[in-house]
Amino acid sequence: MTWFRSFFDEDNVWQYFEVGDDGWAKRQVDLRADDAQALTAATLDEVLHLRDHADLAAMQRYERQFGVLAEASLDGWRDDPRAEEITQTEFEEVWTAARSALSGSG
Questions:
Q1: Domain total for the chain?
Q2: What are the strands, taking DSSP E only, across the chain?
Q3: For 64-90, how does the pLDDT look when each residue is reduced to its tens digit (9 = 90+)?
Q4: Do 87 and 3 contact (CB within 8 A), yes or no?
Q5: In the predicted structure, residue 105 carries a pLDDT above the cut 80
Q6: What CA–CA distance (Å, rounded) separates 34 from 26?
Q7: Contacts of residue 20, Cβ cutoff 8 Å, sequence gap at least 6
Q8: What is the rounded CA–CA span in Å between residue 50 and residue 73?
Q9: What confidence score (pLDDT) does residue 106 get?
Q10: What pLDDT, in 10s, does the model give residues 15-60?
């Protein structure tokens, strides 16, 4: 696994990713840069479970609550000057806070 963050200028958002060896996002957190409000805290495992075991309405509820996971390979992230590798611990701290906020328990 690799963990990195990147700043998305157009939306003023920090994006944090946990990426598998295949280059695809396993987990993603988006935080609004101005106030660090969590916008996304989505995980591939949950998305795949919903795809395989639930209906469209359940997937839509998930996306409204936790946002949408990146749907493209992130292989080229090292070429982005706004991206930087972070530690697993740094990612976990951001993930835990964002997930708690979006779950309504934060």
A1: 1
A2: 2-8, 13-19, 25-32, 38-43, 83-85
A3: 999 999 988 898 888 888 899 999 999
A4: yes
A5: no
A6: 25
A7: 1, 26
A8: 21
A9: 52
A10: 999 999 999 999 999 999 999 999 999 999 999 999 899 899 999 9
* Residue 83 DSSP symbol: E
Contact 28, 78 (CB under 8 A): no
CB 62 within 8 A of CB 46: yes
Find the Cα–Cα–Cα–Cα dihedral 36, 10, 58, 21, rounded to 10°.
-90
Contacts of 38 (CB under 8 A, 6+ apart): 29, 30, 31, 97, 98, 99, 101, 102
Determine the distance from the C-alpha atom of residue 101 to the mean position of all C-alpha atoms in its chain, rounded to a whole number.
14
- How many CA within 13 A on the CB side of residue 53? 6
- CB neighbours (10 Å) of residue 94? 21
Which residue range(s) make up the domain with 95? Answer: 2-103
Q: By the 8 A CB rule, do 16 and 94 touch?
A: yes
Distance CA(12)–CA(23), nearest Å, equals 24
